[in-house]
Design brief:
Elements (H helix, E strand, L loop, with lengths): L1 E9 L2 H16 L5 E3 L6 E11 L2 H12 L6 E11 L7 E7 L4 H15 L12 E7 L6 H9 L3 E7 L1 E10 L2 E11 L1
Antiparallel strand pairs: 1-3, 1-8, 2-6, 4-5, 4-7, 5-6, 8-9
Helix pairs in contact: 2-3
């Protein structure tokens, strides 16, 4: 059986709360054209794998566990609100992550390299750590939302990264549902 899989960093609960408060502010000025993520789904994607054979999950876990032995915990700052690709044509609304130590980028590179050994294509785009808040479904009437994004000076503070997660994503009519398959301590 195939499992839609990605590798991620969870967001600490206290930070999720602060991000959710900002999301609620954005929702007020957004209109109907945005599909917003629930607070429980806030995460930083390190690598989207797509459909993976269920039997491969244990091997992926083993390789990542060995590769990350001794990597160690670190902190990142959750700060800023923005959009991809730009404010003229917003498709994804996000909260940013600042990585003063560079360890989040190191972690993502290890994951990327190890997954390429399994045959997953390397991501061509530069890694831009973020938490997705919403996806624009209808770009009309977003003026208020754009103004709000431009005016927000968001800073949730630092949060510890102590593990990475191998996640399953089930697509449902109501939206995707995430389940943790494995946890790898750093």
């Amino acid at each position: 059986m195939k499992i839609r899989t990605f590798i991620a960093v969870d967001v600490p609960e206290n930070i999720k709360e602060k991000i959710f408060e900002v999301e609620k502010e954005l929702i007020k000025s957004a209109g109907e054209g945005v599909k917003w993520e629930s607070k429980e789904k806030f995460h930083i994607t390190l690598k989207f794998l797509g459909d993976v054979n269920e039997e491969a999950i244990d091997s992926i876990y083993d390789v990542l566990s060995k590769s990350l032995t001794g990597f160690g915990k670190f902190s990142i700052n959750y700060k800023g609100v923005g959009v991809f690709p730009d404010l003229k044509k917003p498709r994804v609304i996000w909260v940013g992550c600042e990585d003063p130590s560079g360890k989040l980028f190191d972690l993502q590179k290890i994951v990327e390299d190890k997954m390429s050994e399994f045959g997953f294509e390397k991501e061509e785009k530069e890694f831009h750590p973020h938490i997705t808040l919403g996806r624009v479904k209808n770009p009309k009437n977003l003026g208020g939302l754009i103004k709000k994004i431009e005016s927000i000076n968001f800073e949730a503070g630092a949060g510890e990264v102590a593990e990475i997660l191998i996640m399953k994503s089930d697509l449902k009519p109501s939206g995707s549902v995430y389940t943790v398959l494995r946890k790898i301590k750093l």
